[in-house]
């Protein structure tokens, strides 16, 4: 028995000696060539236009900017590491999105994961990332429902503003315009249902009368019955909680019917430059949507616009989320450098507590890991610019009543 103990003691001493010799000879951990980041989001299917007009270009631009500067410095590796970015197409299918997210984590072994598109997909992705202790910065989507589960999701961070911050502001803007009655229509996805539920009490608080609330399917092809009902009810404002394809359809058919309202708000889609360009500056005048920020919103916003033009030779296509997505990535980069590691738990702790300067100015998450420093909540097209019409210091223009549709020539 004693000889066995001596054998094990000798083996341990031999291993320790070999390690000591290795360290003396300058032995280091295996060399890491890049920081691996990955995303599964919609590159095809009905959600793809949102990807292409919002978060997709921001990711590409940020990766190019980071790599042009030599990468992100990670002190545990003693140097800057470039970013290698993996993209998968979830085909706008929730089941595919969750499977690909797990593939990124378990098979590709990415250092950082990025979120999918849309509120419902984000709601499904956040618990998965948390399960594997991976940071998920929830850019392109937002839900009050997520607030309910965030105490159990310490690795999830929310960037985008959404119903709870936007609907009180929309209610205030409608009252400022002297409006009294509204009709609400919404799609059946989480976004539409949640916005409707938050809007109703906010509208009533300011004395707005809600003539009716109607839902519509995600694949709606004809909005004319809803438009005719709103017109017959003689409402001052039509409020639609919808995604871009539905909002474009609604606008086109409202023009065809010559259905005019003093205010028309569509939650997602109006904020896109493509909306203005598709219909024309004169047509979209006075249309309101979610957001918002403007080139007038400050030095950082102007810097972002210039940077975007440098990469894509055009203005930013999204006047709601793009500025905030980019700011969150700038904040993430500085958090990684401050943590000095790619360990997600240590990075998470920095993300949750530290303030870093970004294109929106000082960027910090609150105690609930939500970013609250948005430069606007509600935007409105005025003379080709998506202006911030919130009451208060962030306003870049006063709200106006929507003119009647231009007469066709």
Give a verbal description of the structure.
The model is unreliable at 1-29 (pLDDT under 50). Strand 6 (136-138), helix 6 and strand 7 (156-158) form a beta-alpha-beta unit. Helix content is 44%, strand content 17%. It is globular. By secondary structure, the protein is α/β, with parallel strands linked by helices. It has helices spanning 2-24, 48-53, 55-68, 94-106, 119-131, 144-149, 163-176, 190-205, 224-232, 244-257, 273-279, 281-284, 299-312, 322-339, 344-353, and strands at residues 35-41, 72-74, 79-81, 83-89, 112-114, 136-138, 156-158, 181-187, 209-216, 237-241, 263-266, 288-290, 356-358, 361-363, 378-382, 385-388. It is built from 15 helices and 16 strands. The strands form five sheets. A seven-stranded mixed β-sheet has the order 9-8-10-11-12-15-16.
In short:
It is built from 15 helices and 16 strands. By secondary structure, it is an alpha/beta fold. Helix 3 packs parallel to helix 14 and helix 7 packs across helix 8.
List the helices and strands and how they pair.
Blueprint: H1 2-24, E1 35-41, H2 48-53, H3 55-68, E2 72-74, E3 79-81, E4 83-89, H4 94-106, E5 112-114, H5 119-131, E6 136-138, H6 144-149, E7 156-158, H7 163-176, E8 181-187, H8 190-205, E9 209-216, H9 224-232, E10 237-241, H10 244-257, E11 263-266, H11 273-279, H12 281-284, E12 288-290, H13 299-312, H14 322-339, H15 344-353, E13 356-358, E14 361-363, E15 378-382, E16 385-388
Parallel strand pairs: 1-4, 1-5, 6-7, 8-9, 8-10, 10-11, 11-12
Antiparallel strand pairs: 2-3, 12-15, 13-14, 15-16
